[in-house]
Design goal:
This protein is mostly helical. It has five helices and no strands. It is elongated and about 45 Å long. The two termini are 20 Å apart.
């Protein structure tokens, strides 16, 4: 997976949606939202008392959140992007490359 470029608006748009990013959010906001979501959906947060289905849902959701953050981080690391630039501006610039 490392080194593989995920291109196309759908991938970045999905990442924005999964992390519930707003138009004015920057990369620092994305990191905060990622950490909050991982705190909520980490498989360990499901607890042993939850059903197998709920535990599997937490695993699936945490993988989805990790992938979304990886895509957002790739946008940030791909260029001379200021961490305070709105994420949607950075994504649109990244997709034009």
């Amino acid at each position: 997976m490392s080194g593989m470029r995920h291109s196309g608006p759908m991938k970045a748009a999905q990442a924005v949606q999964i992390l519930a990013l707003a138009a004015e959010d920057d990369f620092e906001d994305a990191k905060k939202k990622y950490r909050k979501l991982m705190g909520q959906f980490h498989p360990d947060a499901a607890g042993a008392e939850k059903s197998e289905q709920v535990q599997q849902d937490y695993v699936r959701r945490s993988q989805e959140i990790n992938e979304a953050y990886r895509v957002i981080r790739e946008v940030w690391e791909s260029g001379e992007t200021c961490s305070k630039k709105p994420i949607l501006v950075s994504i649109s610039e990244w997709q034009r490359e």
